[in-house]
Please model this.
Amino acid sequence: MKTMEHQTLEFADIKETLDSLGFKLRDQGAFWHTCAIWRNGDNPTAVQIYKDSGVWKDFVEQTPHLPFYKLVAKVLGTGDSTRVKKYIKDHGGLTNFERDIDNRRKITMDKTYPVSTLSKLLPHHQFYLDKKISTKTIEMYKGGYCTSDKMNGRYIFPVFQKDNPDAIIGFTGRHLRHDSNSNLPKWKHIGTRKNWLYPLYLPVDGKYPFFNSFKDKKEIIIVESVGDSLALTENGFLNHLVTFGLEISNKQICELLAVNPSRIIISSNNDFNSKTNAGQIAAVKNFIKLTDFFDPSKLIIKLPSTNDLCDLHIAENFDSWVEKDINQEKQINFIIKQLKSPNAKTIIKSQSKLSSKISLLEEYVTT
Model:
């Protein structure tokens, strides 16, 4: 028999236990939304419970993600683990119910670099000055031109560890000689990109202005690259997050959950001149992925009219993106249409999840 620490919860055990406690569950794909019945709450999206583990979060009380047994204990109004254990055994079929997530998870540590590394960079900023990025904005990003090693010939930007202004966990670099005929990749990265929360924890004068802007506005803009980030900052939008590719990472989603924004704007590149608009497809995928964690009413896709926000800034037409009005119902109808198209499997591979997402989104449209 497995020990108590390593017992894995099964979907049926979790569902049956929740049903017996009186929860009215709203299916959201990978998780349920429900009311906080222990305080007679009537908000149907106040609590999020994951189907595969029972891990839950109370958005109203801003709790961290907690193990399933603590939810059962809260509803039963007891701190007696024996009573909680017996309830789950009787109503969900489990003999043991708690698993130690930290012991089961493979933990990878980011390699760190000292801030003194940046002293080797040359202050050759003309490339970005030519893109109408001000010296003030450039200095916030602490970047510079690299003349050695793997990043030779690139203008690089440091990525800092969360809450640690003295540790760099990666670099992203734009090759200054890249063009359409070049064999050199335009961007190169050093470090584990999926762990980057950039530029939220970029320290500026001992503070985190990007994260603070996100927290204060309760709104985040999701973009693909540092070029987009620079354009947003130059136009006064510090509340943004860079994915460094097409897909938002799980760590980035966890960071969003911690703040619980009221609005998430997905602004991928707009590859309208290409045979396949990869940016638009990526935006839809990220929209769908985020509905596992956020109500669709909080999500908006807002692509630039040019290839990216940097190009829009250079063209001095950034206001066109800012003032662009998005009809959310029309947008959700467009996404539903994509999910019902022959190419739907490129967005969601699982047929059951595809059907679930279509049903979820159809609740938000009238036609």
